[in-house]
């Protein structure tokens, strides 16, 4: 069977980081007392908040990103006269914004600084700690520490292909696991890459070959088996009639079904936000998936949506300036997406720092003006009545929550 090492090694050789690998995602559930629901989505890869929620009212944005489509004239939806919603999100999410069920927090980040590693950034985001404690020493996540403060809380954990348990909900609170069946398909280029990577490693070479053979028994790693110009006898067999990998809409629908039952907390991840090159194209898939997931959650939850808050959080933002390949690189300050009937939406929360050179972090990144953990802490305080002292000392150790941004309805 394919192992985590298999995916990690192949992804690190193939691209920037396995933490942004498109084959990895997971979903986790927990049941706690009360009627309020919380959904946390980890946006892996470093979502570009400056593109998703465009501060088009700052004239420097267009100068920093001359090749990007920016503002209402380029198809973004005006939100408040300063910020615009990316065109890919407009069809599905503007009705949610208009209904007061969608909002954003801009210029936010974890305390993580400077090294800009997906792995370290995601670990800190899920652990909920600061820079004073090495993430490697933290064995649990902030949602699990919340569960430990709620009497009678239970949890079950579910995985999709290729990802172990989210640190977000790992810890002393009990969990159970569910692993769906998976159908794995790779392009011919991907097959050749993996064959090359593991050519001299018999154990992983044979494991990879076995796994790929099970998914496409008539295919070989040397064949380009897609397209109508390939002889019928050599084409890759079609996917099974029933697709076994839960699609992102299916994951959201499954989460909603649990949240309508005993579950009160759901957490899962959405990958693909690492947009180093060709960002206009690279952003399409994750942005449309996020919009579809939020829409599916609202539709499937029905009246429960009124009691639901969704927080979509990423490990860091991206550089203010575009790079030489019409993309952006790892940054610092970013944006958080919020949704749900429990949200006081229709607003972009936070203090805008500006995009002048002197205002950027390290002369390159959006300057964070708020700790993203504070939004998580105020969410837990409002949803579950968790005391501030517990939030600042136990769940998010070392956090100063500051003033309540009052984003809950």
From TrEMBL:
Q: Does the keyword Signal apply?
A: yes
Pfam families for this protein: DUF1501 (PF07394)
Region of interest called Disordered, as start-end residue ranges on this chain: 216-245
Organism of origin is Rhodobacter viridis
The signal peptide annotation in the UniProt record is: 1-20
UniProt keyword terms in alphabetical order: Signal
Q: Which domain of life does this protein belong to?
A: Bacteria
| Protein's name in the database | Uncharacterized protein (DUF1501 family)
Q: Is this entry keyworded Signal?
A: yes
